[in-house]
Amino acid sequence: MSFSKAQDLIRLARLAAARRVGISLEEICEEFEVAHRTAQRMTEALETTFTGVTWEDGIDRRRRWRVSDPLLERLKPREETAIEALEIAGRAAHSEGRVRHAKALSDMREGLLSRLAPRDALRTEADAEAVLTAMGSVTKPGPRVNFKPMVVEAIIEALRGPFRLRIHYGDPDAPVRIIEPHGLLLGHRSYLVARQPSRGEAILNFRTDRIHAAEALDESFAIAEGFSLDDYANKSFGVFQDPAQYGEVIWRFSPEAAARAAEFQFHPTQVLERTPDGSLLVRFHAAGWLEMAWHLYQWGDKVEVIAPQELHLMVHGHRRSDFGALP
Question: What are phi and psi of 10, to 5 degrees?
């Protein structure tokens, strides 16, 4: 058995031991990016190598394998990647004002380091810092709206309940609002998705940078029936929602920009279509014309809005031909 296959087998055993219901062939294919037959061979090797391997067919008719081999506790994988991942997540949480999450991630990182011998811990920290220093994504370059940590903490506490949230929103002297938070959309601008009972059952967006103060109340509520944050988010191009703007969007990228545009995911529901002249048509359904216009400006005259007409009129007069590079 090659070293890489041995590593995969150990990882599979740890996954099968850690997951309460075990791991299925389909999940093995996804986790290890292998074919179904390879996943079958991996389960056969799992049963041959480790004791305490059991399997059970679930109600979904999928067979799942579990491992309860005490020797697994002695198989400690190297911690560098986990420490790097925790550090990246912690820095991202801190930059977004999620102080509690940043502290929890830092504690987990310190816990992993404490399990290592002093020499290994120093080397691991140095290696992780080198990777993090080289990763520009950690610093999130570019302009951004500042978050108020106390507001973000109150929002997270309310979402955990879920509890109603008392906020001061908009103008500093605006009346207090009581809202029922359903989720948080993070982007160039971040929005709290919530109902405001005094305004009915509609789901509304509240810009988090315009919430001046927030307090989670000891009042629980029921999430709107059938609400899905993923489905809600997919109705917009960015994070802004406007039901009146929702509809089919069609962009045509010129032959010069088609290959580059094909590398983008403009929207989770997009459909791409090559045309005989080499252009690329991108179709999806969403709202948020202003955010679309902000993005389309970067493509200069290499993109044309076919639909909706309102978006076409917004960007048509601003399509430049002198940009030296594509996004």
Answer: -65, -45
3-state SS track over the chain: CCHHHHHHHHHHHHHHHHCCCCEEHHHHHHHHCCCHHHHHHHHHHHHHHCCCEEEEECCCCCEEEEECCHHHHHCCCCCHHHHHHHHHHHHHHHHCCCHHHHHHHHHHHHHHHHCCCHHHHHHHHHHHHHHHHHCHHHHCCCCCCCCCHHHHHHHHHHHHCCEEEEEEECCCCCCEEEEEEEEEECCCCCEEEEECHHHCCCEEEEEHHHEEEEEEEEEECCCCCCCCHHHHHCCECCCCCCHHHCEEEEEEECHHHHHHHHCCCCCCCCEEEECCCCCEEEEEEEECHHHHHHHHHHHHHHEEEEECHHHHHHHHHHCCCCCCCCC
Domain 149-233, classified CATH 2.30.30, yes or no: yes
- According to CATH, where is 2.30.30 located in the chain? 149-233
Q: How far apart are CA 289 and CA 188, in angstroms?
A: 15
Q: Give ranges for CATH 1.10.10.10 in the chain.
A: 3-74
CATH number of this structure's domain 3-74, picked from the four choices 3.40.1280.10, 3.40.50.10490, 1.10.1040.10, 1.10.10.10: 1.10.10.10
Q: Pinpoint the residues of the chain covered by CATH 3.30.70.
A: 243-318
**Over the stretch 166-220, which tens digit does the pLDDT of each residue have?**
999 998 788 999 999 999 887 777 889 999 999 999 999 999 989 999 999 999 9
The reported pLDDT for the residue numbered 210 is 92
- C-alpha 90/C-alpha 138 separation (Å) is 10
Q: What is the fold, at CATH topology level, of the domain defined by 243-318?
A: Alpha-Beta Plaits (3.30.70)
**Is 70 exceeded by the pLDDT of residue 227?**
yes
pLDDT tens-digit readout, 233-271: 889 998 888 889 999 999 999 999 999 999 999 999 999
